[in-house]
C-alpha cells in the first residue's frame, strides 16, 4: 500500500473510531435497582413491564444518536444493605448517570446518601414513604406517598364507619399509612377500635385478622406491600369470615392491586380503597395504556399502579434526556425535573412539586365491582385533585 493510501486508511479508521466515540458519548447508562426475586418478585415485574412498555413505544423519540443502556440489578426485596451495594457498584463501576426503580422504601432510603455524594439523579418508580425525597436533593418521585392515599381515606372513613381497626406492615410505609389514616379519621370524629403492626417478611395474616375480628370494628383498614401479600391478607379476611360478620375491608389501593384481583376472587367485591391509579380508569390515556399493555403482555393481564409508576418515571427520564439533547448534567437534570408535568398520564394529570421533588396527582375513591364479568377497581369519584404530599405540607406549616 502506498504511503498516501496508508494515511487515507488510518484516517478513515480514526474517523470511524471518532464516530464510535461520539456514539458512545451519547449512550446514557441508567442503573435500575428493582425487586425481581423473592416473595415480592411480582412487584418488580409490574414495574419492569411498565417502563419496558414505555421504552418500546417511545425509544424512537430520543434525539438522533442517543441510546439508552439499562443496567438492571435485583435487590431481592426490602434489603437496604443489598440495595446500597448494588447502587454503589452501578455508580462506581458501571458509571451510570441516572438511577431508577426502587420498589421498596428501605432500599430507596439506603441509596439516598450515595445519590447526593455522587450527584446521580434518582427517579423513584415506587417507594412511597414521605421522607424519602427529603433525604437527597437528587431524588424525585413518580409514584405516590402513602400520606396521599391514607389521609383522605381516613377522612372519608370517618363519614362511613364509627370504629375502624388498623393493621399495617411494620415498616416505614406502613407507619406512614397508619399515622395518616388515624389523623384523618380522628380529626373527623372517628374512633380507632385497635391497631396492629404486622411483620414485613413472610407474614401469616390469620392471627392479625383474628385480632381485628375480635375487636368488632365496622371496618379494618390495612396496608401491606401490594402483590402476593395483598392476596394473602385478603384471603385471611375472607377465610375468617370478617366479610360475613359485616366488617368492611378498606385501605390504600395496595390492598386490591389490579393485577392480583383475579387471584383474590369474589371476596374483593365491595372492597373500597383510595388510590392514585386504577386499571379500570376511563381516561383516554388510560384506555390507550391498557390497550398497549394487553397487546404486549396478553389480553387477560392487567397493569398495576406500580406499572404506571414505571411508565411515568421513564417519561420523566425521557424528558430530561431530550431537554439536554442526550448530555446529562446532574444539576440541570434536577432543575428540569422540578418543571416536569404530564397532563396525560394513565392516572390523570401529574406534575412534580418544585419545592419537594415529589409527585402531585389526583386521588380516587374506588370500589371493586365486576365489569364485563371481570373484577375491577371502579373509580367512584375523584376525592382530591392535584394533591401534594400531605406530610410535607403539614410539616411545612409548623
Ligand atoms: C412500598 C410501598 C407500597 O405501597 C407497596 O405496595 C410496596 C412497597 C414501599 O414504599 O416500600
Structure description:
The protein is α/β, with parallel strands linked by helices. The protein has helices spanning 3-25, 41-58, 80-92, 105-118, 146-160, 172-187, 206-214, 228-239, 261-264, 284-297, 305-323, 330-337, 390-397; strands at residues 27-34, 67-74, 98-101, 122-124, 139-141, 163-169, 191-198, 219-223, 248-252, 272-275, 341-345, 348-353, 358-371, 374-387. The strands form 2 sheets. Strands 6, 7, 8, 9, 10, 11, 12, 13 and 14 form a 9-stranded mixed sheet that branches. Strands 2-1-3-4-5 form a 5-stranded parallel sheet, with helices on both faces. Helix 2 links the parallel strand 1 and strand 2 (67-74). Residues 1-25 have low confidence and may be disordered. Bound molecules: 3,4-dihydroxybenzoic acid. Residues 103-105, 127-129, 173, 225-226, 254 line the site of 3,4-dihydroxybenzoic acid.
Describe the secondary-structure layout.
Layout: H1 3-25, E1 27-34, H2 41-58, E2 67-74, H3 80-92, E3 98-101, H4 105-118, E4 122-124, E5 139-141, H5 146-160, E6 163-169, H6 172-187, E7 191-198, H7 206-214, E8 219-223, H8 228-239, E9 248-252, H9 261-264, E10 272-275, H10 284-297, H11 305-323, H12 330-337, E11 341-345, E12 348-353, E13 358-371, E14 374-387, H13 390-397
Parallel strand pairs: 1-2, 1-3, 3-4, 4-5, 6-7, 6-8, 8-9, 9-10
Antiparallel strand pairs: 10-13, 11-12, 12-13, 13-14
The site of 3,4-dihydroxybenzoic acid has 10 residues, from loops.
